[in-house]
Specification:
Elements lengths: L2 H21 L6 E2 L6 H15 L5 H4 L9 E2 L1 H4 E2 L4 E2 L3 E7 L19 E8 L3 E2 L3 H9 L8 E7 L6 H14 L11 E3 L17 H19 L4 E5 H7 L13 E4 L3 H6 L12 E10 L7 E7 L2 H8 L5
Parallel strand pairs: 1-7, 2-12, 5-6, 6-8, 8-9, 9-10, 10-11, 11-12
Antiparallel strand pairs: 3-4, 5-13, 6-7, 12-13
Helix pairs in contact: 6-7
Length: 317
């Protein structure tokens, strides 16, 4: 078979695949409704932080640089503890079906938000009902209002990681996939609580959890050509997996959740084995100074603009 024929067949296969993906209406997937919200899961992180941190005095509270509620854009522009311009810090948010549809997508850049992660799926049978809306809106922003968007999947203990990766990729591809300026895909690995508040991961060994996460990461990396990130919390990871298991995920950027007073004061989150995270989610109660009253999740990348693009392997908007 000559090169021209092979190229023609390959183009036809790619066109057919694209057509099939475009026609996938995801009708067999259920919209998420009653799973624990991020706020409920954050309560677990917060409980650990409060147990490990001594009560703060009024003078200490005044020194916290990233104390909630963190306001966009005021606290992005100015470090409230020093009243000096904030440098080498790039801020982002994450949203899901729990986020009100009026979330001001078109004004995020004006609020100094630079990246937005949107929940896409969970397990093998659930999609986020607002993913399509938020993902499309973010993708259609004009250049002057553009922010980097990213999609994340909540890894469930109820099914294998590779199967969950397939669900995530279906949801992502049915909504146009990712482009070079998008943030890396993310797997959310933390408490998978049932309605009684029991972590389903408790029924799995550390080896089984690691294997499931690796299977998801490898499948998504192979399909997208992008190195995925891992979202987690030291408060969950250390007792469930042990710090040493982090070495098995070398090369995958870590997005850590930590709300402890000591971490906010120093602007250095707690990490497994004192590793350095790529991004830090420091509050679930961030606020817009104007235009949107509900709280939302906020994260920060500590580093220069150049380092931001290098770390996440994304094209400039």
């Amino acid at each position: 078979m000559n090169a021209a024929i092979r190229a023609g067949l390959l183009f036809g296969l790619l066109s057919l695949t694209t057509s099939v993906l475009a026609q996938d209406d995801l009708s067999d997937l259920k919209d998420l409704e009653d799973e624990p919200s991020r706020t409920q899961l954050f309560a677990l992180v917060r409980a650990v932080a409060e147990a490990e941190d001594p009560p703060a005095s009024d003078s200490q509270r005044q020194e916290f640089s990233l104390v909630g509620p963190f306001g966009f854009p005021t606290d992005v522009l100015t470090d409230s503890s020093t009243n000096q311009p904030r440098t080498d810090a790039i801020f982002g948010v994450d949203i899901s079906h729990y986020t009100d549809s009026s979330f001001p997508i078109s004004r995020l850049r004006d609020k100094r938000v630079r990246f937005v992660f949107v929940k896409a799926s969970q397990g093998t049978t659930n999609k986020d009902g607002k993913f399509a809306m938020f993902w499309k809106a973010l993708g259609q922003l004009p250049a002057e209002h553009r922010v980097h968007r990213g999609a994340y999947h909540f890894l469930s203990a109820s099914s294998e990681g590779a199967a969950q990766a397939a669900t995530f990729l279906r949801v992502l591809n049915a909504n146009g996939g990712i482009v070079a300026r998008d943030m890396p895909p993310v797997v959310d690995l933390e408490w998978d609580n049932d309605r009684d508040g029991h972590d389903r991961w408790a029924g799995k060994t550390a080896d089984e959890i690691v294997a499931s996460a690796k299977a998801w990461l490898q499948a998504v990396e192979q399909a997208t050509g992008r190195k995925p990130m891992i979202y987690t919390a030291q408060a969950w990871w250390t007792p469930r997996l042990g710090d040493a298991r982090l070495a098995e995920f070398a090369g995958y950027p870590i997005w850590i959740a930590d709300y402890s007073k000591a971490s906010r004061a120093a602007e250095v989150p707690r990490m497994m084995g004192n590793a350095v995270p790529a991004a830090w989610q420091f509050t679930d109660k961030a606020k817009m100074d104007q235009g949107f009253t509900a709280g939302f999740d906020a994260s920060v990348f500590k580093g220069s603009e150049e380092k931001f693009y290098e770390t996440f392997g994304i094209a400039r908007p």
